[in-house]
Design a protein that fits this description.
Elements lengths: L1 E5 L5 H6 L1 H20 L11 E8 L5 E9 L2 E3 L5 E3 L8 H21 L11 H11 L6 E3 L7 H12 L8 E5 L2 E7 L6 E7 L3
Antiparallel strand pairs: 1-3, 1-6, 2-3, 4-5, 7-8, 8-9
Helix pairs in contact: 2-3, 3-4
Length: 201
């Protein structure tokens, strides 16, 4: 199954100042949230296999940190028996969201208190703690796709995230005068749109 976990845009500035650390914490929180819930017999009752890919941008190339997890819908026990999840989805997104949110916020607070997280300019440690507390009271974007029978297409998408760049050549319409115009599909309304980006000096 394909699970996408995204952080609120209020944390984009933290990402820009702490990309390596942020990436590690984000992938860890996504993995541990899945493992915590799926170890419950109510769902899978075991630890699944997980392949993760980090994505730092959205379709329009704006900052948009998120992690994609390809999760096995079954596990092989030590005695050789295979346990397969029979539901169309592994678990409800509404139950995964607060666990993922809580784990990532806790990791941020730990690294912030340990002096490992760089506080963005214009913020203070106290203000960042306040922001993390406030973000615990809103819904985070966690999406769980229905089970794919073969997983080939999902694995292919993840492979493109890892091996390709942020945008394919076929989406670029023009490059001139230090600006690029490209097409993207807006996931909010499903419509194809155009974006103009200027080169940074």
């Amino acid at each position: 199954m394909h699970v996408i976990s995204t952080v609120p845009e209020e944390l984009n500035r933290v990402w820009q100042f702490n990309r390596r650390l942020f990436a590690g914490l984000l992938m860890r929180a996504a993995r541990e949230a899945l493992q915590t819930l799926l170890s419950d017999p109510k769902y899978l009752g075991a630890t699944p296999g997980i392949i993760s890919a980090l994505h730092g941008w959205g379709r329009n190339l704006n900052v948009h940190p998120n992690v994609h997890c390809l999760v096995t819908a079954g596990v092989l026990h030590h005695d050789g028996t295979l346990v397969i999840q029979k539901r169309s989805t592994l678990l409800p997104a509404r139950e995964l969201m607060p666990v993922f949110c809580g784990k990532l916020r806790a990791l941020f607070k730990q690294t912030l208190d340990a002096g490992e997280l760089q506080v963005p300019s214009g913020l203070t440690t106290a203000r960042l703690h306040w922001l993390l507390n406030r973000l615990g009271r809103i819904d985070w974007n966690v999406r769980i796709q229905e089970r794919d029978r073969h997983g080939v297409s999902v694995a292919g998408d993840l492979a493109r995230y890892v091996t390709g760049g942020p945008i394919s050549d076929r989406r670029i319409e023009s490059v001139q005068n230090s600006q690029v115009i490209f097409r993207y599909r807006d996931h909010r309304d499903g419509k194809e749109k155009r974006m103009r980006k200027h080169a940074r000096q």
